[in-house]
Amino acid sequence: MAGILAWFWNERFWLPHNVTWADLKNTEEATFPQAEDLYLAFPLAFCIFMVRLIFERFVAKPCAIALNIQANGPQIAQPNAILEKVFTAITKHPDEKRLEGLSKQLDWDVRSIQRWFRQRRNQEKPSTLTRFCESMWRFSFYLYVFTYGVRFLKKTPWLWNTRHCWYNYPYQPLTTDLHYYYILELSFYWSLMFSQFTDIKRKDFGIMFLHHFISVLLITFSYVNNMARVGTLVLCLHDSADALLEAAKMANYAKFQKMCDLLFVMFAMVFITTRLGIFPLWVLNTTLFESWEIVGPYPSWWVFNLLLLLIQGLNCFWSYLIVKIACKAVSKGKVSKDDRSDIESSSDEEDLEPPGKNPHTTTTTNGTGGTNGYLLTGPCSMDD
């Protein structure tokens, strides 16, 4: 184990030439980031999760009820012992051969059986009230952490001149505000990784998990080798659009159509401007070129920039989805129900059959769009 740890913490990988871990030990004159500081993120992530439960129960839910948002879930599939047994024990998505067999056994047409399975899958989806509470929690946290980040960075020289991210690197003292900002962001993304398995299941589960994982790696990585100054720029920049997305989703659930449209347009503009404009021209410019000029490359420098480029790849993917939704909205004159479903669609398509319609009829309406992506949960900062 000692050999593995010595290999993992190799100074020639983590630090610039002629710098050792001993040089970055805390002294009475200066405090530097220490890897063991990051252990604090785990209990804090649990605390954030508990705060979320309390917030959703005692703050978000009363707000939702005041806005007349009901806890009604999707349409319930009619009881059927044979289909229920197939659903629970065999498959939730029967193939054509099985559908034909069930059709003969029940004397139902295939379309009715397909509708039953779709309704049965949709029963497991959360209600609009649950969705609203989740979005309100995310909105509140994103708004708080972005506001804190802006107030903190306004007082720092590297916001106005990114070359200060690298002057005297890595001997840059760790301030209390910077430490709090980093640990809070890291704890939140750990909580997102864990809660993703219990939250609303969405189509982009895999890509969002990858996004959260890369975010945690970036935050951890930049803290350990004291790239925290440029890390704060990445965090704050990526937090800028998140609150707008969650606000648009809340307006959607409350059926405030015009407000939803306006907030979505604002979100799209901020997201594309920050992710495709400011991030590459400002942040990637300093991490790739200014740092090369002032500090010079070393192994962990390459890894850090590779992770940032992966984040930028996700930004391009999500921007494509946003533009696609925006084009659909412009062609229809508003962010219609199908467009909003691109933002909110869950793991299966909803059957929007009118209440009271005979379950054996064959006419269905598909209420969900085909795209999802980052729009489902909001970006993640070093995230997104």
TrEMBL record:
Residues 85-128 bind DNA. PROSITE patterns: HOMEOBOX_2, TLC. Gene3D superfamilies: Homeodomain-like. Residues 83-127 form the Homeobox domain. InterPro entries: HD (IPR001356), Homeodomain-like_sf (IPR009057), Lag1/Lac1-like (IPR016439), TLC-dom (IPR006634). One of its GO terms (cellular component) is endoplasmic reticulum membrane. This is Ceramide synthase 6. It comes from Marmota marmota marmota (Alpine marmot). The gene is CERS6.
